[in-house]
Amino acid sequence: SYPLPTARAMMAARCSLNIAPHARVALPASSRRRADGVTSRVRRVPRAAEADARAAEANVAVEDEDDDELAERKAVSELVGWCVSKGAQGSGLSVLLPDGRGRGRGLEASRDIENGEPVLRLPLEMGICDYQDGHPAEAWEVMANAPWGVRLACRLLQERAKGEDSDYAPYIALIPESVPGSPLMWTDDEVASLQYPPAVAEAREMRDAVATWFGKLSAEAPVALAGANLESFESAVSVVHSRTYGVASSQSGEGYFRALLPLADLLNHGGDEYPESATSPANRGGEAKDAPGTRKWPPAGCSDNVAWSELSDEGVVEFAATRDIEPHEEAAMSYGERSNDHFLVYYGFVPPRNPHDDVVVFADVDHALSWHMVFHPELWDVDEAETEVREAAARAAVREVERALAETTDGALAASEPRLKVLPGGRCDARLLSAFAAAYAGTEGAAGAERGAPVAVVDVESAHADIARRCAELLRAMPTTLAKDVETMGAASDGESDPPVSEGARVAAAYRAHKKEVLIDAVLELGGEAVKLPDDA
Questions:
Q1: Residues 203-254: tens digit of each pLDDT
Q2: Can you tell me whether residue 293 is helix, strand or coil?
Q3: Claim: this prediction has a pTM higher than 0.70
Q4: Complete edge-to-edge strand list for the sheet that includes strand 244-248
Q5: Do the beta carbons of residue 289 and residue 372 sit within 8 Å?
Q6: Would you tell me which of 43, 193, 458, 534 could form a disulfide with 508, CB atoms 3.0–4.6 Å apart?
Q7: What is the DSSP letter of 325?
Q8: Residues 469-506 as b or e (16 or more Cβ within 10 Å = b)
Q9: Half-sphere exposure of 389 (CA within 13 A, CB side)
């Protein structure tokens, strides 16, 4: 099957506006501004921000704009006018233009915005929707069985092929050709440089699946591709992965729609973050073996300030502020509390300090116990009866954890995810910790687990040490150090590397660097005096 997410990370269920069921987010008639009140402003360095803000609010071009910037401003103005003609409404937002330093477009507050205040109101039909309408009739039999990402990529290619004759021409003009950070755009070596086997496998699977669908469409429904070659098709898939909204029409999720939504797709990600002081010293020019200054969990803050509603009965998606927003503060929306794997594969970037990232340390409980048996023959290679007791204790402890989780919101997640992970701040899967601790306890652990009794502190400490040992093993298996990854990211940022660092190489370095942050945390937090970081971590 094609490995696309069943729903966009920014699920409406996660991002629903906290409004009473009878209420609707609607722009009050007395203060409603149509989308032609959405202006544009060039991103500037802080010392020029105040002057640029005044220029933007006066809707005049900044004097030092070059031809490209003027063309960009004109294209944005045409997009806004087109959105107005399609029924879009907005209040209090400006479009931020690219800054020339790798930062793309975005939205920002053009005035003070209050918590709960509506800022955008967009008819779903103004977007490029995942409907049968629009596809060539002779291609639909094949397209009907394609993943939504393939269908929307084909719709994007079809509209691009029409040029100025497309009904979406002003919107298409500002959609990027590709997302360079997506593994779909990378070389094989760049994919391998992720250094993390689950991500390498997922990226390769997605690349192979996209190529397979291109071959199928080329053979059975070439008109769907609108003349695109494999590279253009991969580029289109990378774009729709990163920009598609999944919108439910009710709290039950009935009537789920996917679409590329103009203006809304300019909202960049903002989510939970831990402070920079919580990163490993190796990420700040020091030694990885030193503990970070502050902890990564719980998150120190959250940078999102906008969320969207479910689809209204009128077919409208409405966006509102989730807190007060100051003028010239960027409007951002959470793409979901996800690991960096999801951000990498589907959005082509990784949040720099994501407390929801994780590292798989064992494929499942069987894998964990097999590792434990090899690492601790003194516990397991005694006699068959004792081995059976220890294994029974470990599995009973896992069942007890799963039973407890079943009564929480994490129950469904645990049931669907057999892999055992560690997370930033030295957090680890309770199933893994319980299995190892009960294995140490042996007979006593088996009986205690069935009763839900607590495990002895010494057994928990031993389990922590074993998890830290496993994390140290995984660190040693990664070819580069955290400090080297940071150096690669720095070379990409300053643009002075020879040869230049590609976007794929930069994103891969950022991705694997954070995985090492998570593993280093686990070793330092769980290993105590028993486990030390590898010298080349």
A1: 999 999 999 999 999 999 999 999 999 999 999 999 999 999 998 876 555 6
A2: coil
A3: yes
A4: 128-129, 256-260, 244-248
A5: no
A6: 193
A7: B
A8: bbbbebbeebebbbbebbebbebbeeeebeeebbbbbb
A9: 15
